[in-house]
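Hey L., structure's done. Input below.
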Amino acid sequence: MRNKILFGVSFAGLLAGCSFAYLLSIEPKPAAPAFNPPSNPYRTGIYMEGMVESDQPSGENINVYPEVPGTVKEILVAEGQPVSKGMPVLKIDDSIQAATAAQQAAQAEAALSLLQELRAEPRKENLDVAEAQLISARATLKTAQDTLEKQTGSYQIDPRSVSKDALDTAINAVAVAKANVAVAQRQYDLTKAGAWVYDVQNQERQYQALVKSHAASSALLAKYTLRAPRDGVVLSINAVVGSFVSTQGAYDSYTQGMDPVLVLGSPQNHLNVRCYVDEILVPRLPVFTKMRAEMSIRGSDQKLPLTYLRVQPLRISEDRAVRSENGTGRRPGIADHLQD
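Output:
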């Protein structure tokens, strides 16, 4: 009985393994393609990759980069929105620079106040104090002179009435009082003359330096607001609020490269397609008057007819060449501009 059970379990396991192996060997049918792959509609056509851009005189879009790094605070436009020259399109966090500019503005105001104070000298209150000190010194001199006259007169009548030491002290007191009057007179003249011209000039230079520093800070502060360099249409925005941007643009986590923060195009109802032709294929290009082109949109079956516009060759210097791995010299191809 036990052997029959073991045989049955073994047979069931073998049957399950064969069934599982058969199911795994069945290949699923491939799904139908979402769109037909692009095909060349021309018998002798050339397939080229390109990029869509606005119709500019130079054939390129306007890439907008910030002049200062920082965190994006606000985006003021949307893709497809027309903008005019000087219109703000994006703001970067400027809190630190704004505080710096405000601090320098306050320093310039303080320097101006000190300059105005120097120009307003002499202050009436200071002049009154200097005049009072001069009057006091003169009164002290008058008292010392009167004392000396009395002692001298008494000494002349009776030399024993005044000691020689007291007479010398009175003479010295007059001399000291005269010196104090001279000092008080000069202090009064100095106060009355006002600020020294060199002090005024020095303060003027400091004020001008602080004004220019504030102007430079204000100009740098204005850089934290990106403005449209010309009239156009916003083609793409490669930054989001909260992301960090630098003078090299915005970091793209998919391509791991740096993209312009904004791309502007011409305010027109048509776009250009720039096609890059390898120099090997240049001889196969037809005469420009007979050129026909068609654009296939990647990921779809849509095709758009194109009209030839112009050619822009890409050149390098004659004494330098780009070497390929096999040692043959090659040059960049020609950029064809086709108008939709």
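The first strand starts at residue 50 and ends at 54. DSSP finds five helices and 17 strands in the chain.

-- N.
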